[in-house]
Amino acid sequence: MPFPVLHRKNLRRLTLLLGGLVCGLTVLIGTAIKLNGQPMPALSVPPAQVHPLPPSLMQWNTAQAAQGDYFDQVKSTAVGGLIWTHWPVKVYVVPSSTPGLPPERWSAAIAQAVQDWQPYLPLALTTTGAEADISISPVPPQGRSGNRVRSAETRYELYVDAQQTLAHRISIYIRPSQTPQYLTAAARHELGHALGIWGHSPNPNDTMYFAQVRQPPAISVRDINTLKRVYEQPTQLGWPLKPNPESTPAQG
What pTM does this model have? Predict the structure, then answer.
């Protein structure tokens, strides 16, 4: 489904919750997008196109593709593949002020999850949220998944950047009342969503398995096979927007 033409309208939200015991996935789509506080002229997004693979995925050993993937479980988005097109992707860890969760324990648990994904996509921790592509907060997600309280949630929002390119940013919320092991596991899982795997694996040996397990798995070959397939898909993200002919005043 093509992304709607960007007009000067109020921000509206479309919520998509995918089943699972670990997390909920939420999309916030802005149809009124401002640049430096000023309304954007009406623009339209070009057709979805394929970006070059990041070097780390280009070098991924294709012989391991025989182990399979779960790409058929990845949900389509309004803009195609939910991928990053600039590197490194900047990750901001919001400091913890939660009683019982020392800031250093929280930061270390999340930094480990970022490090776990580093071999596959370039990530960089940043000390300011203003320049972050992905922010991770020690805030309990809202709602439940089935009969269980969610341990984490990932949301994305579309916007137009300074180069008038369609872009996205990610917000991750993690329930802070977990052991460091499960904080890292939740962050590792949610980062998988944030990096483009907008869905869940049915295999408990994958980090993107839909439920929390007693011994959280590491990132698997199947996880990376799926990630690579996601980055081979066309997307409207990362491409410059064009003036909408319907919004151009008539001449003469």
Answer: 0.83
